Amino acid sequence: MQRSMVNIYRLGLKELRSLWADKVLLVLIVWAFTGAIYAAAKGVSQELHNAPVAVVDEDRSPLSQRLIGALTQPYFKPAQHIEFNRMDRVLDHGQVTFAIVIPANFQQDLNAGRRPAIQLNIDATSMSQSFIGAGYIRAIFVAEINEYLSGRRDGNEPPILLDTRVRYNPNLIGYWFGGVMEVINIVNMLTIILVGAAFIREREHGTLEHLLVMPLAPFEIMLAKIWANGLIVLLGTSLALNGVVRGILQVPVAGSVPLFLGGAALYLFSAASIGIFLGTLARSMPQFGLLFMLSIIPLQLLSGGVTPRESMPLLVQDIMLGAPTTYFVRLAQGILYRGTGLEAVWPDLLAMVGIGALFFTLALLRFRRAVTQTQV
Predict the structure, then answer these.
(1) What CA–CA distance (Å, rounded) separates 328 from 345?
(2) Which residue, 302, 254, 256, 271, is CA-closest to 194?
(3) Could you give the CA distance from residue 376 to residue 353 in angstroms, rounded to a whole number?
(4) C-alpha pair distances (Å), 372 with each of 84, 111, 292, 313, 369
């Protein structure tokens, strides 16, 4: 047992030296845990921000000017005043996302008790902005008109008082969610790539055959690759969480960071085992890349990190219970967002270990056969 531990330790050091010699891969790892997370969090905004809007004001009344003036930053850019015959052109060229037409005699008709229509034209190629912005414009205009007519912005008194309280993210800031989920995606992606690619690279260079003729067991070689590459990813995760997410993005973490990193370490075992298993299936690096693409997309999209699992078909939910990413996403959200403790996440920890042990066993069974496969 002691000899096996020494072998695993020394083989892991060999993996670390090999990784240190690959400067391009090191740059990729550093970028993945710093710039990529910041870009993903800030670049994909889930709020309306500086949406370009144009207004055709055919009424030119104080009320129409009041409505236009209510479209303020940071939600909208200053409104462009255009003529009606230019509206289609600015939409066709993508110069604005929203084009609003306020008809003539709008204020006069409103004062007379009629219900004049305001036309809102939307460039739906900007899908997220168009969907959110339409609701923003409607809410702003309704509030301004209610205040103009009755002096109150909320209109008629509702039959009930709905007291809404938002927990964990009270201001509904989108990048609070996006930054943490990108850390999880990077952990998942890099672990599978690093471990699987290391296995394929050594097999293509003939290094694995040399290791197998030495007094080394396949599980020692596999564990060495897992702990060495997992250590790099775990250090990067700690840097990303403390330096980028908490430091630069100023995202508050509600729970225990050591508990999250402990869960991440167990998940790394599962993800690395999947990477080795894919490496045993592939005969070359291009084949491994294709297998990686086929596996990483459902792991990231269907695990609950992009959309809630409850909104997916039941069959998809049941299938994804066999993926460790599902449990890691649930664990990360519980610890980092809601501040849950070990008493709530221990089933997810056990599930990740069990799935990781299954893939590790499958990879171990295929190890020698994979080494002797003929490349195609």
Answers:
(1) 10
(2) 271
(3) 34
(4) 72, 85, 21, 41, 5
Amino acid (one-letter) located at 230: G
Q: Which residues contact 373 (CB under 8 A, 6 or more apart)?
A: 283
Residue 94 dihedral angles phi and psi, to the nearest 5°: 70, 25
Reference 51, options 99, 101, 102; nearest CA is 99
* Distance between CA atoms of residues 241 and 251, nearest Å: 9
Per the listing, tokens 């943490």 go with 180
Predicted TM-score (pTM) of this structure: 0.77
Q: For every one of its 376 residues, what pLDDT tens digit does the chain have, with 9 covering 90 and above?
A: 778 888 888 888 888 888 888 888 889 899 989 888 888 777 666 667 788 999 999 999 999 999 999 998 888 889 999 998 998 888 888 888 899 999 999 899 888 888 888 999 988 776 667 778 888 888 888 888 888 887 777 666 555 555 677 777 777 677 777 788 888 889 988 999 888 888 888 777 777 767 767 777 888 888 988 999 999 999 999 999 999 988 888 888 888 999 999 999 999 999 999 999 998 888 888 888 888 888 888 888 888 877 788 888 889 889 999 999 999 999 998 898 888 889 989 999 999 999 999 999 998 888 877 666 644 4
Angle between helices 285-301 and 174-205 (to 10 degrees): 160
Burial of residue 275 (CB within 10 Å: 0-12, 13-18, 19+) is buried
Q: Answer whether 352's CB lies under 8 Å from 265's CB.
A: no
| Dihedral sign, Cα of residue 82, residue 88, residue 91, residue 92 | negative
Token pair, residue 239, equals: 């840097």
Cα 312 from chain centroid? 17
> Quick check: 178 and 41 in contact, CB under 8 A?
yes
Structure tokens at 319: 């299938």
**Residues, the chain, total?**
376
* C-alpha distances out from residue 274 to 97, 214, 224, 230, Å: 44, 25, 15, 13
Q: In degrees to the nearest 10, what's the CA dihedral of 296, 185, 362, 214? A: 110
